[in-house]
């Protein structure tokens, strides 16, 4: 089935998320924070949306881009690595793009990197010329090699890529890295980033034009209200009038200070900070005259 062939009119949105694995729980939590709730089917593959007509399909992450391309699901939460790999593979086969990343979601961060045996001295991409590179991301690696003008042999492996150099099936690898512990345990070191990745909300290239369109825009608005607030903090404190200018300078990255009615010449002040506030920064504000500092998390907001 293809999305372009008379797709049936649907009035419920369907979102594919990972059933098990790294992205499964954060994806569910994020959607729950957007006000969605579900009833699970007995096979635990389908969750019927109760609070809104938005259903979940629980699948392997590898299947998510294809489900969107085929119009089975409207949206999916998947690593950019997986989405871009399948997009690059489609283009290498002469197929048009069928899905796109609509929003970055701020979790599942990792990088697709070239890693070489620890004893190698890495001098840059040209050093990969003539080598065999093991990877589960053959399309992204092929595309990167082409961009670098480097010819190398891409050895496709579905798992345990990191042991390929020891087994002698490849000279180096191209794999996902987060902490780097797996590479170190296999006497490899990361040397070159091919792609920085995080979980994304993916959707079809052509947005739905039926009842799902309204649902999609509502969901995106709520998602922005949750994701963009994740790091924001509301900072409240008291200060004497003559200290306010210096404090405002220390808070130059925050929104302008809002003055609330206080007592005498002690003002009550508040502002929205773009990121977390460290202890060190709070102590600095205290030294500059802020009293009773309080940092509050922002759960959601409507722009
Ligand atoms: O069963 P299913 O097919 O759905 O799951 P999966 O096993 O294919 O995927 P899963 O759950 O392992 O990963 C899902 C997504 O999480 C990936 O597509 C990435 O977008 C993202 N992600 C984030 C990661 C990592 N971090 C990560 N570290 N995916 C894999 N890894 C691997 C890494 O390659 C290494 O082997 O985890 C291992 C530990 O990494 P280090 O660097 O911390 O040692
Ligand atoms: Zn997978």
What does this protein structure show overall?
By secondary structure, the chain is an alpha+beta fold. Helices cover 27% and strands 32% of the residues. It is flat. The model has no long low-confidence stretch (mean pLDDT 94). A hairpin with a 2-residue loop joins strand 14 and strand 15. A seven-stranded mixed β-sheet has the order 2-3-4-1-5-12-6, sandwiched between helices.
Topology:
Blueprint lengths: L12 E6 L5 H10 L4 E3 L5 E4 L4 E6 L4 H6 L5 E5 H13 L6 E6 L5 E8 L14 E4 L2 H11 L4 E4 L7 H4 L4 E6 L3 H5 L2 E10 L1 E6 L6 H17 L5 E8 L3 H7 L7 E6 L2 E8 L5 H9 L3 E7 L6
Parallel strand pairs: 1-4, 1-5, 8-9, 8-10
Antiparallel strand pairs: 2-3, 3-4, 5-12, 6-12, 7-10, 7-11, 13-15, 13-16, 14-15
Helix pairs in contact: 3-4
The protein binds phosphoribosyl ATP and zinc ion (ZN).
Zinc ion (ZN) binds next to loops.
How are strands sequenced across the largest beta sheet? Answer: 2-3-4-1-5-12-6
Bound molecules: phosphoribosyl ATP, zinc ion
What is the percent of helical residues? 25-40%
Which residue ranges are poorly predicted, with pLDDT under 50 across at least 5 consecutive positions? none
Average residue pLDDT? 94
- Helices, by number, come to 9
Given helix and strand content, the structural type is alpha+beta
Radius of gyration (CA) equals 24 Å
Strand content: 25-35%
N/C terminus separation: 38 Å
Quaternary state of the chains: single chain
Q: Which geometry do the CA atoms define?
A: flat
What string gives the helices and strands in order?
EHEEEHEHEEEHEHEHEEHEHEEHE
Major β-sheet profile: 7 strands, mixed
Tell me how many strands there are.
16
């Amino acid at each position: 089935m293809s999305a372009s062939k008379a797709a049936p009119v649907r009035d419920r949105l369907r979102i594919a998320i990972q059933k098990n694995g790294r992205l499964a729980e954060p994806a569910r939590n994020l959607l729950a924070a957007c006000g969605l709730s579900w009833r699970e089917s007995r096979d635990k593959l389908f969750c019927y949306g109760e609070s809104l007509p938005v259903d979940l399909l629980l699948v392997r992450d590898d299947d998510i881009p294809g489900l969107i391309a085929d119009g089975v699901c409207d949206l999916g939460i998947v690593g950019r690595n997986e989405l871009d790999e399948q997009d690059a593979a489609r283009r290498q086969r002469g197929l048009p793009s069928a899905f796109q990343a609509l929003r970055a979601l701020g979790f599942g961060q990792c990088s697709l990197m070239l890693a070489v045996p620890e004893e190698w001295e890495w001098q840059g991409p040209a050093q990969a010329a003539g080598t065999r590179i093991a990877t589960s991301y053959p399309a992204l690696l092929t595309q990167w090699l082409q961009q670098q003008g480097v010819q190398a042999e891409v050895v496709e492996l579905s798992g345990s890529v990191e042991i390929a150099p020891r087994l002698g099936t490849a000279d180096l690898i191209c794999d996902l890295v987060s902490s780097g512990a797996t590479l170190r345990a296999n006497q490899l070191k990361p040397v070159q980033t091919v792609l920085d990745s995080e979980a994304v909300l993916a959707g079809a290239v052509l947005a739905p034009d039926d009842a799902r369109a309204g649902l999609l825009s509502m969901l995106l608005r709520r998602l922005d209200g949750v994701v963009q607030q994740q790091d924001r903090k509301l900072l409240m404190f008291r200060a004497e009038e003559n200290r306010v200018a210096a404090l405002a300078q220390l808070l130059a990255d925050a929104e302008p200070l809002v003055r609330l009615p206080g007592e005498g010449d002690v003002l009550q002040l508040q502002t929205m900070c773009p990121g977390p506030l460290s202890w060190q920064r709070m102590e600095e504000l205290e030294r500059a005259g802020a009293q009773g500092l309080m940092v509050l998390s922002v759960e959601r907001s409507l722009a």
